[in-house]
Amino acid sequence: MFFGFKLHQQTGSTKGFFKKDKRSSLQEALDLIRSRYVDSVGLDSLQDDAMEGIMNHLDPHSVYIPAMDLSEANEDIVGNFEGIGVEFNIFSDTVHVLYVVPQGPSDKAGLQIGDRILKVNDSNIVSKTLPSTAIRKLIRGEEGSKVKLTVLRNNTVQYFYVTRGRIPLPSMDAAYMMDAVTGYIKLNKFSETTYKEFMQAMEMLQAKGMKSLILDLRGNGGGLVSQATSIADEFLDGDKLIVYTQGTNTPRREYRASKEGVFEKGKLAVLVDELSASASEILAGALQDWDRATIVGRRTFGKGLVQEQYDLSDGSAIRLTVARYFTPSGRSIQRPYDKGKKIYMEEIVERYQNGEMQTADSFHVNKTKAFKTKGGRIVYGGGGIMPDVFVPIDSSFYTQHITQLYLDGRFNNFVYTYYIKHLPLWQEFKTPTEFANRYNNTADAWSQLVDYAMKDSINLKKVPATEKKEVEDRIKAFLARFKWRTQGFYEVANASDKIVQKAKEEVSK
Fold first, then answer.
1. Catalytic residue among 186, 189, 303, 468
2. Where is 27: in which H helix or E strand?
3. So what's the pLDDT on residue 44?
4. Do 64 and 318 touch, CB atoms closer than 8 A?
5. What pLDDT does 458 receive?
6. Which of 278, 280, 316, 329 is catalytic?
7. How many whole angstroms separate alpha carbon 116 and alpha carbon 98?
8. pTM, rounded to two decimals
9. Can 289 be counted among the known catalytic residues?
């Protein structure tokens, strides 16, 4: 649903857009069911199902959003939500606080990492069946409202009264200097705050002497086109074309560079993978077509459709595909979807099966759709953005025993428990860089992970040495995440990340 979503910014409110003097047959049928059907039925659910059925006959990215889900669906794009400012997970049927937003509502009320939330306004949330979505709805609420939390801390029950507030959802996971001249920025989406966050990070990195930049868009599913094009403008000079859109009922619209950028000359590498989509592909495609950046990683998702959001009169909305994206060279990013949504979505899995994730020679793209970059290099359309420098996926994490731990969340549970048991130890480290350089006791964590896994009959004792080392690196990165969030995770993880290291080589040439 999120891939490539573009808010309908040109026409303003679209409430009543679909109103007509003449009722449709769908509305007539619903009215008849309401007034004549033998049993009582939930008309809202019937209407939702009917709308979803209509959307299923369109492209994979046109979606219907019921009224009850619309607010949450918009949160990632807006860049904030209303709540208490904690991240939680459920371990052993109990809600554990994993992170408290600094200066947020919960921080001000006194909550800490490791607290166990037992009740929300006297509603018991210790349950084997209560899903995390239901718990989230209990905890969240309108800004300014108060919630009572019953918390277990150090085997003592305590009570906290939290005034809910507006909690930011940053689109930037990390920004730091990898060495004296190389900066690194990781973006997880393109929301209303992305360009502002990006510019603040660029100012900070350039003040520290940045001459080369690694921009990480792996896993970035897209978002607002305006944010992606604004960032592209900072890398491109003149009035260069960044992207254009066009559809059967939508005239061509061009997005061009319009001002002097903050980084038009330095070495630039952009990291992508199979989950980089839409706005990420627009940015990577524009920089590739103008030979401004080296694209490193694996072929992107291949989502080049423009959605605009239309609000309906009952509070629901549809995000409707209205045009296609085209890179400056004229190539379409979108891969085919004529065989249906299921096959379209499963194509990502097929890339693992057909060897594309392992060798650059296995790319399955239409070589007849060839285009040229400004410098004359051949690039292809109709299936995402192919990297200039291919780096295969690390398949060692997909062996049976390790995969079991990752898929069901037990690995994360273990690292959290290990972190809480050794809280005084982490206080010795003031920064992620210091932690990355000085913390080397991963052998102890590995030993305890082996014992932890054995309780569920998962034998890690015969895991190859190379895989053991990669798991230890991952444990270290997860420990850094609990203390410094995503900033800490990437500072530690990037030291052993093959794509990041390859990109570092490229910008140093």
1. 303
2. helix 25-36
3. 79
4. yes
5. 82
6. 278
7. 10
8. 0.88
9. yes
